[in-house]
C-alpha cells in the first residue's frame, strides 16, 4: 500500500489506501519509539521546518520529536497569528523558508486554507498541522491508529464525537477519515455547535449525549474552547457540562468496552470528568504516544524513501 | 466630428428599436437613426458595425474606483478605462474612499478628477452617514448640489433602524434613492463566505443569507411611512428576491440590482480557497441563482451592476479569511450577462435594457437611450465573438477576478462617449 499524495493538507484528499499506508508505516515506526535508543538515521541531512502560527504544545513537540528521532534537523518557528499586521505575508514567509532549502514544511495556522495556500507556492511537501476550523489531519491519523491498536479493526466501528463540532478541525478530519474507512460516525452537541448541513458529510446528529453514545465503540470528546466563552453558543459552562460533559454516570449508558479519546488539551471537569480521564476506557495518552509514530511515518512517506533506508 | 455607425443591429429599448439601422452622430449627440444604407457617407467618419449590436452605452451604478485613498488598487482614471473596455459609458462610484465621500469638497473633487481624467462619465454616490459610521446624516442636499446621484453607506450598511428611517425620509425630499448593501453585521461577524455545507466543510466562517434578508425586509418595511426610495444593492439571496417581488407588488418604491457573479457562481467555487471567490455578499447556492434568474425574468431584479471592487495582490494573496472582499467586474460584465441570453433567461433586448435604460430611469440620468437628441453614449459589441478572458489584459489596475481563463462569448468593439470613440478593441 502506497501513500499517493505529495502533501498532507487534509484527510479529505486521501483515499482509503493512503490512510492505511500511513497507519501501517506508523505501526513500524512505533517499534523504534519504544527502544532505549530511539534515534534512527533515516532523515539524516534533511531539514524540517515546524512553523506554528498558533500556540501548541502537543502537536509542535510531537512533530519535533518525530523529526529528531529520525535524525532530521528540525527548526521551530513561532509566527505571529497575524502575519499581515507584522508586515510579511504567509506566502513570503514560506517562500523564504523554502529558499533555505527545507525538505518538509509543517504549518499550524489559525486560518482555514493556510496550509493549502502555502502548498500552492512551494515545491516541497507541506504537512498541515491544523488550519483554523478546517482540518487537523495528523490528529485524525493518530486517533485512527489508537483505535486500531485497541479494536484491531476500523471498518464497521461506531464512533461518536462530542462537543463543539462547528469549530473543530479535529472533528472534520476524523469524519472524513472514518467515513472513508467505512466507520459509522455520530456527532453530539448543542445545535449552536453543530455546523449547518453536517449530515451531508455522512454523520448522524444527536443533541443528547446519553442517546448519542449508547451504541458507540469509540467516544471522542472535544475540548470546549474557553476563549470562545463570550460568544453565545451555550449559556454557561455549568449547563454545558451538565448536558454534554462525560462522567462515570453518563458512561454507564455506553458499551462496556467503549474507548474514550480526547485530542487535548483537556479541560478537566468541563467536557470530561477526572475519573473518566483516568479510568480504564481512556486512551488519551496512547493517542499522544501514537502521534509521534504517525508523524515519523508521514515524514518518511512524504520524502518518498524506500524500505531499505529505514534500517 | 460626424460619425456614421453602419450595418449594425441597433437595440434601443427606450424607442423599441431592434433591427439593422444606421446611427448618425453629430456634435456629441445622436442626430438620427436611419434605414440601413440610406445615409450618404460623405463627410462622416464611418464605423462598420457589421455583425455587431449597437446599443446605448452601458451604465453601472455600483463601482469602486478607490480614489481618493486607495489609488494603488484603482484610480478614477484607470477605473474609467476599465469601464470603457467593458462597454460602460457611465458609472457611479461608491463613497467608501479615504476620506469618505461624505462632504461637498470630496464630491466636487471626484467630479473634477472625472472631468479631467476619466474617459467615461463618472458620477459620485455620496455617503448616507458621516464617515459611513451610521450615526449622523450627511448634508444630503449640499451633496446633491455638488453632483451626488444617490446615497449609500455601501459595505457599512446603515444598521440603526432610526437612522435608516430618517435617511429615507430626508432623501425623499431630495428625490434621490438610497442604495443599501443589505447585511446585518452581527450575523456575518467573522464570516467570509456563504454559510452552508461548503463553509461547514472548509471550516470558514459563514455569512448566512438571513443577514441580507432581514435588512431587505426592514428597509422595505420603512418605505410606506418614509416615502423614501430604496435601491437594494447586489442582491444575492433567493429569499431577498422574493421580498423585493412582494414589495413591488404592493407598489412600494423599491428597485434592486444583481452582480454577474451572483447569477453565475455558487459557493462551491470557494473550495480551494481562491480569494477571488471572496466577496460581500458572498457567492450563494444554486437555488439562490435559480431564484435570481427568475427575478431577472420577471423584472423583480431591475438592473445588472458589477460591484467592480478592485483589490491589489497584497489584499488578495493572503489567507482566505484575511483577504479583502470583492472582485473586478467591468471588463467581464458583457460576456457574463450574455450567458443569461444564451440560457433564455433574458432576451438580448432585455439584457441591454437592464444595462442601460433601466439604471438611467432609476437614477434619473438623462442617458441610456439612442433617441435622436440624446447624448451619443454608445456601445458596439459583437455578441458572437468567442475568446478567453485574460485578467492580465484588463485595463483596471487590479486583476482580481474568478473568471480568468474562462471561455466566453461577447466582445466590446467600440465604446463611444459623447460622440467620441474612447475604446476600440483592435
Overview of the molecule:
The complex is a heterodimer of chains A (311) and B (426). By secondary structure, chain A is of the alpha/beta class. Chain A contains twelve helices and nine strands. Helix content of chain A is 38%, strand content 14%. In chain A, α1 crosses α12 (284-302), α2 (58-69) packs across α12 and α6 packs across α7 (169-180). The two termini of chain A are 19 Å apart. The model of chain A is unreliable at 307-311 (pLDDT under 50). Chain B contains 14 helices and 18 strands. Chain B has helices at 76-85, 104-117, 140-146, 161-174, 185-188, 197-202, 210-226, 238-249, 260-264, 286-297, 313-316, 333-342, 348-355, 357-362, and strands at 3-12, 17-26, 29-35, 45-48, 53-56, 58-63, 88-93, 121-126, 150-152, 178-180, 193-194, 206-207, 230-232, 254-258, 303-304, 378-388, 407-417, 420-424. In chain B, α4 (161-174) packs across α7. Chain B starts with a strand and ends with a strand. The mean pLDDT of chain B is 97. Classes of the chains: A alpha/beta (311), B alpha/beta (426). Chain A binds chain B through residues 12, 82-84, 89-91, 109, 111-114, 116-117, 131-135, 166, 169, 172, 195-198, 200-201, and chain B through 195-197, 199-204, 206, 272-273, 314, 317-322.
Write the SSE topology.
The complex is a heterodimer of chains A (311) and B (426).
Chain A: H1 16-33, E1 47-52, H2 58-69, E2 73-78, H3 83-86, H4 90-99, E3 104-109, H5 114-120, E4 126-131, H6 137-151, E5 158-162, H7 169-180, E6 184-188, E7 203-206, H8 209-213, E8 218-221, H9 237-244, H10 248-251, E9 259-261, H11 274-277, H12 284-302
Parallel strand pairs in A: 1-2, 1-3, 3-4, 5-6, 5-8, 6-7, 8-9
Chain B: E1 3-12, E2 17-26, E3 29-35, E4 45-48, E5 53-56, E6 58-63, H1 76-85, E7 88-93, H2 104-117, E8 121-126, H3 140-146, E9 150-152, H4 161-174, E10 178-180, H5 185-188, E11 193-194, H6 197-202, E12 206-207, H7 210-226, E13 230-232, H8 238-249, E14 254-258, H9 260-264, H10 286-297, E15 303-304, H11 313-316, H12 333-342, H13 348-355, H14 357-362, E16 378-388, E17 407-417, E18 420-424
Parallel strand pairs in B: 1-4, 1-5, 6-7, 7-8, 8-9, 9-10, 10-13, 11-12, 13-14, 14-15
Antiparallel strand pairs in B: 1-2, 2-3, 5-16, 16-17, 17-18
Helix pairs in contact in B: 2-3, 4-7, 7-8, 8-10
Amino acid at each position: 500500500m502506497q501513500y499517493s499524495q505529495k502533501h498532507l493538507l487534509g484527510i479529505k484528499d486521501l483515499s482509503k489506501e493512503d490512510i492505511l499506508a500511513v497507519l501501517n508505516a506508523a505501526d513500524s515506526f512505533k517499534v523504534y519509539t519504544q527502544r532505549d535508543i530511539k534515534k534512527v538515521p533515516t532523515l539524516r541531512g534533511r531539514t524540517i521546518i515546524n512553523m506554528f502560527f498558533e500556540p501548541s504544545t502537543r502537536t509542535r513537540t510531537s512533530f519535533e520529536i518525530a523529526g529528531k528521532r529520525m535524525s532530521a534537523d528540525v527548526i521551530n518557528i513561532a509566527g505571529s497569528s497575524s502575519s499581515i499586521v507584522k508586515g510579511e505575508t504567509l506566502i513570503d514567509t514560506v517562500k523564504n523558508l523554502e529558499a533555505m532549502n527545507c525538505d518538509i514544511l509543517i504549518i499550524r495556522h489559525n486560518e482555514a486554507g493556510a496550509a493549502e495556500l502555502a502548498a500552492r507556492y512551494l515545491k516541497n511537501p507541506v504537512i498541515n498541522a491544523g488550519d483554523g476550523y478546517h482540518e487537523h489531519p495528523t490528529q485524525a491519523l493518530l486517533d485512527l491508529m489508537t483505535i486500531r491498536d485497541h479494536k484491531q479493526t476500523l471498518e464497521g466501528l461506531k464512533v461518536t464525537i462530542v462537543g463543539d463540532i462547528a469549530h473543530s478541525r479535529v472533528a472534520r478530519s476524523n469524519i472524513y477519515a472514518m467515513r472513508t474507512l467505512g466507520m459509522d460516525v455520530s456527532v453530539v452537541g448543542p445545535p449552536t455547535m453543530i455546523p449547518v448541513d453536517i449530515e451531508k458529510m455522512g454523520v448522524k446528529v444527536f443533541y443528547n449525549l446519553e442517546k448519542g453514545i449508547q451504541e458507540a465503540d469509540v467516544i471522542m470528546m472535544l475540548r470546549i474552547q474557553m476563549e470562545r466563552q463570550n460568544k453565545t453558543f451555550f449559556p454557561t459552562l455549568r449547563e454545558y457540562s451538565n448536558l454534554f460533559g462525560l462522567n462515570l454516570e453518563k458512561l454507564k449508558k455506553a458499551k462496556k468496552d467503549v474507548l474514550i479519546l480526547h485530542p487535548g488539551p483537556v479541560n478537566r471537569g468541563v467536557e470530561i470528568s477526572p475519573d473518566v480521564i483516568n479510568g480504564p476506557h481512556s486512551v488519551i495518552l496512547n493517542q499522544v504516544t501514537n502521534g509521534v509514530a504517525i508523524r515519523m511515518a508521514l515524514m518518511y512517506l512524504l520524502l518518498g524513501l524506500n524500505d531499505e533506508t529505514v534500517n | 466630428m460626424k460619425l456614421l455607425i453602419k450595418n449594425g443591429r441597433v437595440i434601443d429599448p427606450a424607442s423599441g428599436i431592434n433591427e439593422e439601422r444606421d446611427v448618425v452622430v453629430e456634435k456629441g449627440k445622436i442626430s438620427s437613426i436611419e434605414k440601413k444604407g440610406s445615409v450618404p457617407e460623405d463627410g462622416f467618419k464611418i464605423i462598420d458595425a457589421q455583425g455587431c449590436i449597437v446599443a446605448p452605452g452601458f451604465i453601472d451604478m455600483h463601482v469602486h474606483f478607490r480614489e481618493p485613498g486607495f489609488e494603488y488598487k484603482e484610480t478614477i482614471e484607470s477605473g474609467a478605462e476599465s469601464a470603457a473596455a467593458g462597454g460602460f459609458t457611465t458609472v457611479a462610484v461608491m463613497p467608501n474612499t479615504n476620506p469618505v465621500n461624505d462632504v461637498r469638497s470630496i464630491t466636487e473633487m471626484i467630479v473634477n478628477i472625472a472631468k479631467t481624467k476619466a474617459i467615461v462619465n463618472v458620477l459620485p454616490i455620496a455617503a448616507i452617514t458621516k464617515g459611513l459610521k451610521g450615526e449622523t446624516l450627511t448634508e444630503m442636499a449640499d451633496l446633491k448640489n455638488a453632483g451626488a446621484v444617490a446615497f449609500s453607506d455601501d459595505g457599512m450598511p446603515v444598521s440603526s433602524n432610526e437612522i435608516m428611517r430618517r435617511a429615507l425620509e430626508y432623501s425623499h425630499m431630495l428625490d434621490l434613492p438610497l442604495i443599501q448593501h443589505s447585511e446585518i453585521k452581527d450575523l456575518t461577524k467573522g464570516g467570509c463566505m456563504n454559510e452552508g455545507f461548503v463553509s461547514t466543510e472548509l471550516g470558514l466562517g459563514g455569512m448566512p443569507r438571513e443577514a441580507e434578508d432581514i435588512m431587505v425586509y426592514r428597509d422595505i418595511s420603512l418605505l410606506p411611512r418614509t416615502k423614501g426610495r430604496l435601491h437594494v444593492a447586489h442582491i444575492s439571496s433567493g429569499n431577498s428576491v422574493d421580498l423585493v417581488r412582494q414589495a413591488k407588488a404592493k407598489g412600494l418604491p423599491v428597485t434592486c440590482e444583481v452582480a454577474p457573479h451572483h447569477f453565475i457562481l455558487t459557493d462551491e467555487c470557494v473550495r480551494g480557497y481562491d480569494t477571488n471567490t471572496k466577496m460581500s455578499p458572498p457567492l450563494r447556492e444554486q437555488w439562490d441563482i435559480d431564484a435570481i434568474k427568475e427575478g431577472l425574468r420577471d423584472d423583480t431584479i431591475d438592473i445588472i451592476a458589477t460591484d467592480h471592487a478592485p483589490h491589489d495582490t497584497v489584499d488578495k494573496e493572503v489567507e482566505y479569511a484575511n483577504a479583502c472582499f470583492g472582485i473586478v467586474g467591468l471588463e467581464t460584465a458583457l460576456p457574463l450577462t450574455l450567458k443569461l441570453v444564451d440560457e433564455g433567461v433574458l432576451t438580448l433586448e432585455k439584457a441591454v435594457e437592464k444595462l442601460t435604460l433601466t439604471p438611467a430611469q432609476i437614477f434619473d440620468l438623462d442617458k441610456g437611450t439612442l433617441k435622436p437628441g440624446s447624448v451619443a453614449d454608445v456601445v458596439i459589441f459583437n455578441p458572437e465573438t468567442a475568446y478567453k478572458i485574460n485578467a492580465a489584459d484588463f485595463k483596471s489596475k487590479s486583476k482580481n477576478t474568478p473568471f480568468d481563463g474562462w471561455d466566453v462569448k461577447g466582445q466590446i468593439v467600440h465604446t463611444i462617449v459623447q460622440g467620441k470613440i474612447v475604446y476600440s478593441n483592435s
